[in-house]
Q: What sequence folds into this?
């Protein structure tokens, strides 16, 4: 077991929870409602993050072993987390908008988590001649794009931007959708420097998923744009 990876991933979860206690402070929800929503987010993210790998390993899928093998995708995890929150809210009859309170802590958590990917030596990019290229163990002798570090910088920048938006009350009720859409666009672009299999029209499976996700969350943004409650205001989340 890579204990550095384990510590980093545990730190990502811990920091996200601590930040969310601040960003969701003003929500008119009980402790148990917040706990239920948090559990829905965690379960949805963990299940969805594994699904592409589970379904790609037919024998492992039938035996159940694929659920415990290596391999998770943040892209699907974000969508699954969103779905898990909405499912938990539906089950508990909660109508309050909660996405704004998740945006910053999720972005920070993913930023830290990508450092874990860097430590573990997975999710690296294609070979590069750039001076910051890194030789990853098990990936040959050529320096490669440290795409994990690129993602860490992206998510840190998004966390800062989302924090400013939330403080100023901009895009109320839509920040988590903005974050997921922006990440899908970023991921679509960076797939060109990742060694993933091209399946359709020279695009990877992740790029196809990114297109679907952008359109899906753009639709959800449009659908929800007229139903934002006052609970997502800056004073409510940062009191």
A:
């Amino acid at each position: 077991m890579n204990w550095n990876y384990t510590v980093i991933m545990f730190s990502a979860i811990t920091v996200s929870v601590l930040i969310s206690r601040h960003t969701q402070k003003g929500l008119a929800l009980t402790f148990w409602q917040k706990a239920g929503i948090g559990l829905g987010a965690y379960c949805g993210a963990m299940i969805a993050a594994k699904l592409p790998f589970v379904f790609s390993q037919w024998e492992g899928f039938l035996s159940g072993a694929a659920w415990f093998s290596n391999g998770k995708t943040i892209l699907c995890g974000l969508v699954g987390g969103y779905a898990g929150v909405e499912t938990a809210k539906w089950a508990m009859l909660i109508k309050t908008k909660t996405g704004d309170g998740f945006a910053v802590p999720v972005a920070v958590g993913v930023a830290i988590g990508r450092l874990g990917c860097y430590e573990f030596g997975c999710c690296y990019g294609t070979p590069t001649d750039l001076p910051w290229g890194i030789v990853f163990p098990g990936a040959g002798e050529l320096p490669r794009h440290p795409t994990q570090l690129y993602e860490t910088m992206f998510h840190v920048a998004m966390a800062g931007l989302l924090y400013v938006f939330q403080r100023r009350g901009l895009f109320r009720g839509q920040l988590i959708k903005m974050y997921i859409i922006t990440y899908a666009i970023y991921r679509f672009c960076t797939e060109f420097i990742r060694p993933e299999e091209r399946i359709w029209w020279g695009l990877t499976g992740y790029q196809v998923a990114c297109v679907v996700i952008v359109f899906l969350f753009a639709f959800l943004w449009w659908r929800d744009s007229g139903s934002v409650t006052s609970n997502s205001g800056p004073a409510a989340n940062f009191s």
